[in-house]
Design a protein that fits this description.
8 helices, Multidrug-efflux Transporter Regulator, Chain: A, Domain 2, Globin-like, single chain, elongated, 2 domains, mainly alpha
Length: 209
């Protein structure tokens, strides 16, 4: 008979794997990790299943596990910071439709994920910038459709930029004890966001020319 201690709740299992519980839920829904449901509908994970997952993916996805954890935490922290900035009180925000607001939130989350992926790699990381540029072009189109000036367009981006960088720093992306490596990661993050900003402005200028 299996001991109860061998079964973990979703929060316990997530802690055991070193990821956010929302990440574990997504992996479970995608069929990557088996689980059972209690009569009350709660998810339960067996320790052996978790160990098998770690052993199977510890080499190929070690970085992905870390990035996924940082991504979830960074997105949450960014949202908290943006609430303090009182985005809904910004004039441009009230011009957005419900669909546009939802789309911008999703795009913002995607940018955080792409920035983490890009910053974590020294080579073969340009694909993440290219994907980010596609999103930033959409930002430029939205700014143009709202009839914002180029100054307002840039100010809007800067409202998100610093909280995003702060959230990455506060949630532990710069974990290396090597200051030189930390500096390289931070420089890659800034380069990534510079490219996003330049692409957004370029797209805006194309639309008004």
């Amino acid at each position: 008979m299996i001991e109860n201690s061998a079964w973990f709740s979703i929060s316990e299992a997530a802690k055991y794997l070193g990821v956010h519980f929302t990440t574990l839920r997504r992996w479970s829904d995608d069929g990557l990790i088996e689980f059972i449901r209690t009569p009350g509908g709660k998810r339960k994970y067996h320790k052996d299943i978790l160990d098998d997952f770690l052993n199977q993916y510890k080499h190929s996805t070690k970085m992905n596990l870390q990035i996924a954890t940082l991504q979830e935490a960074a997105i949450l922290r960014t949202r908290e910071t943006m609430q303090k900035v009182k985005i809904p009180e910004q004039g441009w925000y009230n011009k957005l439709s419900i669909e546009q607001r939802s789309g911008m939130r999703g795009a913002g989350n995607r940018l955080v994920a792409l920035m983490l992926q890009y910053s974590a790699r020294e080579q073969n990381n340009e694909v993440f910038i290219e994907q980010a540029k596609h999103i930033s072009k959409q930002y430029g189109e939205i700014c143009h459709s709202l009839e914002l000036t180029i100054t307002e367009c840039i100010q809007t981006f800067l409202l998100f930029r610093q909280p995003m960088l702060n959230s990455i720093h506060e949630t532990g992306s710069l974990q290396s004890t090597n200051d030189a490596i930390n500096q390289q990661i931070f420089e890659r993050m800034n380069h990534f966001l510079d490219e996003v900003l330049v692409t957004m402005v370029d797209e805006y200028n194309k639309l008004i020319s």
